[in-house]
Amino acid sequence: MKINILLCDIFEDIMPFEDITYVTMLQSLFDSVRDNIHYQVFEAFARDLPDVTEEDAIYLIPGSRADAYSDAPWLKELRQFIKELYDEKAKMIGICFGHQVIAETIGGRVEKAVVGSGLGVREAEFCSPNVAAHFKLGKLQLINYHEDQVVILPPSAKPLATSSFCPNEGYTVGKHIITTQGHPEYDASFMRFILKNHAFDESEITRMKALKTLDKETNGKEMADYMLSFLGY
Q1: Which domain holds residue 7?
Q2: Domain with 175 in it: what CATH number?
Q3: Of 14, 95, 148, 201, whose CB count within 10 A is highest?
């Protein structure tokens, strides 16, 4: 199995440990549920994208501090590449920003959330009992850190999970695209570090409330496993 990671941010200035990067966080997540994954990393934020699309590869579009609807040159190029992947029915996984930018590219709409930032562990209900049956908790519990939301799903998408805070917590398209607003690659220690040492654009009350959620169980590994299974791996 090959996963092409289209990096949209490296978060170098906020990573808590020198030996852990955003790339290794993503790799550790998927390596925890599958063996023998080959990764190729492209720095999409630096306008580095694959020259051609690979039929059997998965394209992983993870988190970023950018806005999915920005007119930045690198984002215009990324959205054009996503459109090509979509037209070719290439396999894609979207996480947080990736979830948003895929939606924005293929006919959905992303906006600043009127309810404010989503921070900490959030519970979401799966839209299908068949999907819920794959998860021990019967629901989705992931760490979140986002200001924007997908407010309108693409016409071709089916809702995957929903919550009162974020109605579109994830979606699928055919059998080749699956996304989630939450971060399956984040763990409590990482998010605790961010809330205590960064995220100062949020109020102290908001950060304290988010910190209190981090004792809740999360199922990021189960989500990674389900994503790969959904794509046929």
Answers
A1: 2-230
A2: 3.40.50.880
A3: 95
Structure confidence by residue, pLDDT tens digits, 141-157: 999 999 999 999 999 99
Closest CA to 78 of 96, 58, 61, 55: 61
Q: Coil, strand or helix: which one is 230?
A: helix
Q: Is 110 helix (H, G, I), strand (E, B) or coil?
A: strand
| DSSP 8-state class, residue 183 | B
Q: Output the CA angle 7-122-211, nearest 5 degrees.
A: 90
Cβ contacts of 224-230, under 8 Å, gap ≥ 24: 224/29, 224/30, 224/32, 224/33, 224/184, 225/33, 225/34, 226/131, 226/134, 226/135, 227/93, 227/178, 227/180, 228/1, 228/30, 228/33, 228/34, 228/58, 229/134, 230/172, 230/175, 230/178
32 in Cβ contact with 65 (< 8 Å) = no
The set of catalytic residues is 96, 183, 185
Q: Give the Cα separation of 153 and 2 in Å (integer).
A: 28
Measured in degrees and rounded to the nearest 5, phi and psi for residue 121 equal: -75, 130
Q: pTM for this structure?
A: 0.96
Residue 13 has pLDDT above 90, yes or no: no
